[in-house]
Amino acid sequence: MSDPTAATQEDLQEEGIDPTQVPGEQDAPEEDSNGGPVAPFDPRNEERDLHDGDQDGPDRAGDPGRSVDAKVKRTLKIAGKQESTVFDFRHVTSPNGGKIAISACVHHIPVITNVPGRADLDTLRRVLLDQGLMVQFGTDAEGNVAMYTPADRLCFHARGANSVTCGIEHMHHDVAEKWMKKQLRAAAWIAQRLENQFGLPLRLAKVEPGGFHVAAITQTGHTTHMQISTAAGFNDRVDPGDGFDFEYVFRAAKFFQDHGHFVGA
Q: Taking a C-beta distance cutoff of 8 angstroms, is the pair 195, 220 a contact?
């Protein structure tokens, strides 16, 4: 696997820092909002995904439009003396359906360019809402995280597996774009949260054809939009690309669980 972290482009300011001497903060316990029983399977929920909204994706984030007052859930020590923010949109963003049982987390990229601040995450939310779509999480190159809906609520993000997966849109305009460690660490924060809350293991999922344009998750864990699309027989997705380093994401997630920060991960 090629180096995804573009170290020459990213100054993490971590040389000489002892991670054990950096104060950490674990996530505060969060009550399950319940949401009732898992909704029965409906094949109509497997017909749409995030790229249905690509035609509305701007070349750059620009004016997000209809920006809302997201709550700041917490900050993350994402690198050196740098912090990122976890923005919580769950109180103002509706999922596409009821409760699901999470078997895998699907990693995506949109057609929205990273920009400084929150505008890219706001733009993604607007584009998806306009198309009647949604995804549970988003990240950007600064290491910011968006929590759009509860992780265990149906979102139309990966057709063929919406009923059994949550998803993360990682702000990247194309699969050739270099991955920053801060963004992979943001993905790691979500991954460790999914393990802590829902028991989703820090490993690659196994995905097989389930027939009738449905992907079957035969081993729980994390996977790509491309794998879901292939298993469901659509064969029309390539994201997030070969450069997305799952092994690093899993290591960083365990690092955060041990230290409560990402400095030195």
A: no
